[in-house]
Specification:
homotetramer, 274 residues, 8 helices, 2 strands, globular, membrane (chains A, B, C, D), transmembrane (chains A, B, C, D), DUF716 (chains A, B, C, D)
Chain lengths: 274, 274, 274, 274
C-alpha cells in the first residue's frame, strides 16, 4: 500500500460502496414511507440485492487477498522466511487479514438473506466487526513513522472506529438516521484514503509534504473536517434526489397509497421513526 | 480569538442560546403536561419557532464566517500563501470550519421543520455533530501553549464533548431531563468562555495569571465546578419560573384540561416521562 | 482530610448511606413483588422517607461545608489571601465544592418528592451528577504525591466514576439489579476511604506504608478486589434478610395477594424485571 | 502461572466453557424458534442445566483456589511474611481473587435458578462482573516485563474487557447475537492463553520469542485476528450443526408446530429477534 495507487484503490472502493449504500438505504426508507408496493420497492427485490452485494463483497475480498499475496514481490503465502530467520512481509499479511473480515461480512450477508434460520441483523454486526478489526490492524500499523504520516493514519483510525460504533449502535437499535450516518463516514474514509495518497505520495511526482511542520498537521485537521462536510452534503443530496425520484417518478409506475393517508397519520409515522 | 473580546463574543452567544433553549424546552414540556391547547403551546407555533431559530443560527454562522475571513489581517479566502510558501492563518480557517457545522445544523433545523420527508430527530443529530466537530477542532487547537492556557481549553473541551454526548443520547432516547441538561452545559460553555477571557486576557489590562503556578490550575478546577453549579441553578430557576407561568398565568388565557385529570393519572404520566 | 480521621469520616458516611439505600431498594422491590399493600410498603411512606433522606443529606452537606470552612486553620470563607498574594487553602475549598453538589442532590430529592411538576428520575440524575463532580475534583487532587498515594486515590476515582456511570444508566433504564449495584459501589467507596486512612495515616501511629514499593501497589490492587467482594456479599446478605423479612414477618401484619398469584404469573413477572 | 502449563490450563478451561455455552445458547434459541415442546427443549431442563453449570463453576473455582494456595512453594494462606517483612507471593493471591469472582458468579447462577426471589438476569451481571475483575487484575499484572510479554497480555486484556462489555450490554438488552458473540470472545480468550504459552514458554523447550523485535509484535497482532477469525468460524459451525440437529433429528422425537406456522409469521418472528 505504500504508494499513491495503494491508497487510491481502497479509497475508490469505499467511496463507491458508500454511495451505493446511501442510495439503497434511502430508497428502502422512502419506499416504506410512501408505501410503494410495486416490484422496485418490494422486499423480495431488496433481499436479492443484498445477496448480490454479499457476492460482490466476497469477490472483492478474495481478489484483494490474491492480489496482496501474488503481486510480484509479495509473500506468496509464505509467512516465515526460514532461511533469513525472519517474518515475511507482514504488512501484506495484515492487509489480507483485513480483507478476510470484509469477506466474512459478505458471506454473512449472503447467508442472512438466503437462509431463514439466521437473524437478519447479524449482517450488521459482522459489518461493525469488520470495521473494528480494520481499526485494530491500523492501530498497529504506523510504528516508527513520521509525525504527519502517523497523524493522517490516526484520523483514518478515528473514522473507522466511529463507523464501527455507529454500525454497532444501529445493530442494537435500528434507526434510519444512524443508517445514513454510516455511509457518510464510509465516504469520509474513502475520500480520506485519497487525501492520504495526495499528502504522502503526491501523484504529481513532487516531494511529500514536510512531515515535521506543525502547520501541516493543523491544515490536515481542518481538511479532515472539510472532507466530512463534503460527505454529509453528498449524502444529503442523494437523499433529496432519491426522495424526489420515489415521490414523483415512481408515482406513475407503482400503485401508491400515499394519497389516502391523512396528514396526521403521516406526522405520527414521522415521529415513530425514533 | 486571541483576545478578551474573542472569547467574550462566543461566550455571550452560547449563554444567550442556552437560556433561550432551556425556556423553550420547559415551555414545551409544561404545555404538554398541563395539556394547554391554546395557540401559545401549540405544535404549529413551536414549528415556526424552530424554523426561525434555524434561520438565526444560519445567519450567525454566515456572519461569523464572513467576519473571520474579512476582518483586517484575516485570510481573505486565501488558504495558501504561495509567495511565502506557507499556510495562511489556519486558526481563522479553523474557526470558519466550526461556524460552518453550526450553520449546517441551522439548515437541517429549517429543513426538518418545513419538509415532512425528513425525520425531526435529524436536527438533534446535527447539533450533536456540530459539538463533536467543535471538540475535534479544539483538540487540535492548543499546541505548544502554556500549562494554564492548555488546561482551561481542556476543560472547555470536556464541556463540549459532554454536550455532544448528551445531545446524542437524547437523539437516541428523547427525555426531558437530558434535554434540559444540554442547555445547562451550553450555558457552562458560555460562562467558561468568559472565564477563559478573564484568565488569559484580563480586561482590566493587568497581566495574565501566572501560567505555571499549580495553585492556579487547582483554583481553575474549583472555579469550573462553580460555573457548573451556577448554570444548573439558573436552569432550575427558569424551570420554576416557566412552570409557574404556564400553571398560573396561562390558566386564564387558554382552555386547559388539567382540572379534569385525576391525581392518579397525573402521577402515572409523571412516571411515563422516563 | 490529610489525616486518618479525615478519611474515616467520609468512609463511615458512605458505608452508612449505602447500607441504608440497599435496604430501602430491596424493601421497595420485595414489597412490589409480593404485592404487600399495608402502610409499611406503601408509596406514601416511601415518598416521606425520600423527603427525610433529602433533608438529612442537605443537613450533612451544610454541616460538612461549615466544618471545612470554620475548623481552626480553615479558610474562613476567604478565597484569596491578598497579603501574601496567593490562594487560600484550595483543598478545603475543593471539599466544600464536593459537599455542595451532594447538597444539591439532597435539595433535588426533596423537590422531586414534594412537588409533582418535577420528574422523579431527576433525583437519580443529580446523584449521578454529584458522583461525577466528586470524580472530577478527585482527578485534580493528587498532583505531586507519592506513587502509592496516587494509586489508592486512582482506585477511589475508579469506584466513583463507576458509581456515577451505573447511576446514570439506571437513570436511563430503571432496573433493580443496577439499583443494587450502586449501593455496593458506594459501600466499596466507603470501605476504601477507611483503607486509604490505614495505608497513608496508620492509626496505630506507626509509619505509613513504603510509598515506592511495587509490592505494596500490587497488594493494594488485590485488597481493592477484596473490598469489592466484601461489599457484594454484604448487599447480598441484606437482600436475603429483607426478602425473608417481607415474606415471613410481614405476612401477619399486612394483607397480601401473594397466595393468589399463580406460579406462572410470578415467573412472568420475574422475566419482566428486565 | 509463569509456565506453559499455567497458561494452557485456563486456556483449555475457557475453550471448553465457550464451546459448551455456544451450544447451549443456540439450542435454546433454536428450540424456542421452532417451538419444540418436548423435554429436551423445555424450560425445566435448561434450569437444571444452569444449576449444574453453577455447581461445576463453583467446584472449579474452589479447586483452583486450593491449588494456587497449596501447590508446593505456594503461599499456604499466609499473606504477609513477618520474618522477611514482605508480602508473600502476591501473584498467587491475585489468581485466587480472580477465581473467587468466577466462584461468586457460579453461586449466583445456582441461586438465580433455584430461588424465585432473584431476577434471572443477575447471573449475567455477575458474569460480566467476573470478567471486569479479571481485567482489572490483569491490568496490574505485567509491571516491569518485556515488550512482547506486555503486548500479548494487553491483547488478552482487550478480549476480557470486550467480553465483559458484551455481557453487560446483553444483560441490559437480551439479544441472541450478542449472547453468541460472548462465547466467541471467551473462545478467543482460551486460544489466546494457549498462544501466550507458545510465545513465552515454548513447550518444545526452545528459547522464547525475541521480546524486543517489532516484527514479532506485528505478527502477534495479525495472529490475534486469526484467532478471532477462527473462534467466529467455530461458533458459526456450531450454529449450523445445532440448528440442523434441532430441525431434522428432533423432528421425530418431539412434537413441533413448525409446520403449522405460515411463512409470513416466521419472517415476522425473525425480525422481532431484535
Amino acid at each position: 500500500m505504500g504508494s499513491f495507487r495503494g491508497h487510491a484503490l481502497p479509497g475508490s472502493f469505499f467511496c463507491f460502496i458508500s454511495l451505493w449504500w446511501s442510495m439503497k438505504y434511502i430508497l428502502k426508507y422512502a419506499c416504506k414511507k410512501y408505501k410503494r408496493t410495486c416490484y422496485l420497492g418490494s422486499k423480495a427485490l431488496f433481499h436479492r440485492v443484498e445477496v448480490l452485494e454479499g457476492i460482490i463483497i466476497v469477490g472483492m475480498a478474495l481478489s484483494g487477498m490474491t492480489w496482496e499475496q501474488f503481486v510480484p514481490g509479495g509473500p506468496h503465502l509464505t509467512l516465515y522466511d526460514y532461511e533469513e530467520g525472519q517474518w515475511n512481509q507482514l504488512l501484506e499479511w495484515q492487509h489480507c487479514t483485513m480483507y478476510f473480515f470484509f469477506g466474512l461480512f459478505g458471506v454473512t450477508n449472503i447467508l442472512c438473506y438466503t437462509s431463514c434460520s439466521l437473524p437478519v441483523s447479524l449482517a450488521k454486526l459482522m459489518m461493525s466487526n469488520a470495521f473494528f478489526v480494520e481499526a485494530f490492524v491500523f492501530y498497529n500499523h504506523t510504528h516508527g513513522r513520521d509525525m504527519l504520516d502517523v497523524y493522517v493514519h490516526q484520523l483514518l483510525l478515528l473514522v473507522i472506529i466511529v463507523t464501527g460504533l455507529i454500525t454497532f449502535i444501529d445493530f442494537m437499535r435500528s434507526n434510519i438516521i444512524l443508517e445514513l450516518l454510516q455511509p457518510s463516514f464510509i465516504l469520509l474514509q474513502g475520500t480520506w484514503f485519497w487525501q492520504i495518497g495526495f499528502v504522502l505520495y503526491p501523484p504529481s511526482g513532487g516531494p511529500a509534504w514536510e512531515p515535521t511542520d506543525h502547520d501541516n498537521i493543523m491544515f490536515v485537521s481542518i481538511c479532515f473536517c472539510w472532507h466530512y462536510m463534503f460527505s454529509l452534503i453528498i449524502v444529503g443530496l442523494i437523499y433529496v434526489f432519491v426522495t424526489w425520484l420515489v415521490k414523483s417518478k415512481l408515482k406513475r409506475a407503482c400503485p401508491s397509497e400515499v394519497g389516502l393517508l391523512k396528514n396526521a397519520e403521516r406526522e405520527q409515522e414521522l415521529e415513530e421513526e425514533m
